[in-house]
Specification:
Elements lengths: L1 H49 L5 E5 L2 E5 L1 H52 L1
Antiparallel strand pairs: 1-2
Helix pairs in contact: 1-2
Length: about 120
């Protein structure tokens, strides 16, 4: 009985460590995507303030290509929408992982309680 509880506790502890690692990865990805989205919004505001006749350039490798202002703005809007969708998906994944962490922690507490109860007998 005690060895089963120990094995279960060890398994849950490993699962909990893996889930925490995944949680940190998802949080980091969310922060990166959100930062990119905010930068895109700032760029859109600056392009709108510059006017439609302003020369705009797009970086391509080590070169810059002159692109119409409307083209750059539409690209930034599409990228912003995509990033918002990515953040939403990552938010759902984060909530799922947090639920799994909570369940694993509860299971680990139960396994430890079972080990303590078995050792008391």
């Amino acid at each position: 009985m005690a060895s089963e509880a120990q094995a279960q506790a060890g398994e849950l502890q490993g699962k909990l460590q893996d889930l925490n690692r995944q949680l940190m990865t998802v949080r980091t990805q969310m922060a990166v995507k959100d930062r990119e989205r905010k930068v895109g919004e700032i760029q859109l505001r600056e392009l709108a303030a510059a006017g439609a006749q302003t020369n705009t350039f797009k970086s391509v490798g080590k070169m810059f290509l002159q692109v119409p202002n409307a083209g750059v703005r539409s690209e930034l809007e599409l990228k912003g929408a995509s990033l918002s969708d990515d953040v939403e998906v990552l938010g759902k994944k984060l909530a799922f992982l947090e639920r799994q962490v909570k369940d694993s922690q509860e299971g680990l507490k139960e396994a430890v309680a079972a080990m303590l109860q078995a050792s008391a007998l």
